[in-house]
Design goal:
About 95% of the residues lie in helices and about 0% in strands. The protein is built from 1 helix and no strands. The protein has one helix spanning about 1-55. With about 55 residues, the chain is mainly alpha-helical. The mean pLDDT is about 95.
């Protein structure tokens, strides 16, 4: 009985660890995507300013 309980607890802890890793990975991906969006906005703004500067 005690062995079954220990195995069950181990499975639960492994699952918990797996979920934590998944959430952590998703958060890292969100941060990377946010950085990409910010970089693209900066680049678009910079290119627009260059284009406007050249037109004068």
């Amino acid at each position: 009985m005690k062995q079954k309980l220990v195995r069950l607890i181990d499975k639960i802890l492994l699952r918990k660890g797996s979920l934590i890793e998944t959430v952590y990975d998703q958060l890292k991906n969100m941060v990377v995507l946010q950085k990409v969006v910010e970089d693209r906005k900066f680049l678009a703004k910079h290119l627009y300013q260059q284009k406007m500067h050249r037109s004068f």
